[in-house]
Inverse folding.
């Protein structure tokens, strides 16, 4: 059984990161193409993630289709799009409108009209594409949650959070643990950021930033429930490619100057 994707002359062949089927893979947009992810993006080398500052020019391989990759089989890709795609698209459009009307400064509780379970399942599915092979094997209950539209059972220990994103870098951060120097607390999480929204999935821990809005409890709504949910979602910048970093641009540069060695 191949453990890595191999490209043939006409298609990409590998292991679906969701269902585990080995065969042809389709290009999975992360986030979905309908969520403003239809423009070329720059794919960075892993070594560059920690060295690029807020205003540095980004160099790498251009992905003409948008952010994503050959991570899911066509069957899983089609199912997720059919079951959850429209609900997620409307959620993203409404979020963009809130940000646009507020000029990127959202300080109030807004009433969100949403199909909550469908949106949560779409968000959960995205994390399989940004994490390596083996993530599904470690999270079989999450696989079942996604591939059964009516399931309202989310594995214990997994939590999901959202924030608005108005400025900064795109992120596709696989599961990693970080220590918050200010609070002394650690967080194990994966993160996906693409304006107007950023998502964080945590594992047996809290979020990397306490300001985030939790949507884990959207599992209590059935598949067809269309709800008006009041949410206070913060606006967080992402000026670096490092997951969990929500410093302003000024903070990034100030801390970089403090870390520079003083000349004799």
């Amino acid at each position: 059984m191949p453990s890595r994707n191999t490209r043939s002359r006409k298609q990409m062949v590998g292991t679906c990161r969701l269902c585990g089927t080995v065969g042809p893979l389709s290009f999975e947009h992360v986030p979905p193409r309908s969520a403003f992810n239809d423009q070329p993006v720059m794919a960075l080398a892993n070594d560059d993630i920690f060295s690029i500052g807020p205003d540095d020019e980004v160099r790498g391989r251009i992905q003409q289709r948008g952010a994503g990759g050959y991570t899911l089989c066509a069957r899983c890709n089609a199912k997720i799009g059919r079951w959850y795609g429209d609900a997620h698209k409307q959620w993203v459009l409404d979020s963009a409108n809130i940000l646009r009307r507020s000029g990127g400064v959202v300080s109030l509780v807004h009433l969100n009209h949403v199909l909550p379970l469908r949106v949560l399942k779409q968000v959960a599915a995205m994390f399989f594409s940004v994490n390596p092979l083996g993530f599904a094997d470690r999270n079989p209950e999450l696989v079942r949650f996604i591939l059964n539209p009516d399931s309202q059972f989310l594995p214990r220990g997994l939590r999901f959070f959202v924030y608005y994103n108005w400025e900064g870098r795109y992120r596709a951060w696989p599961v990693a643990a970080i220590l918050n120097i200010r609070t002394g607390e650690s967080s194990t999480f994966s993160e996906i950021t693409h304006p107007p929204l950023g998502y964080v999935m945590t594992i047996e821990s809290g979020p990397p930033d306490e300001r985030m809005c939790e949507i884990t409890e959207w599992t209590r709504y059935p598949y067809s429930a269309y709800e008006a949910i009041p949410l206070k979602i913060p606006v967080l910048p992402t000026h670096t490619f490092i997951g969990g970093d929500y410093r302003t641009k000024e903070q990034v540069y100030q801390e970089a100057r403090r870390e520079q060695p003083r000349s004799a």
Summary: Residues 74-102 form the longest helix (29 residues).
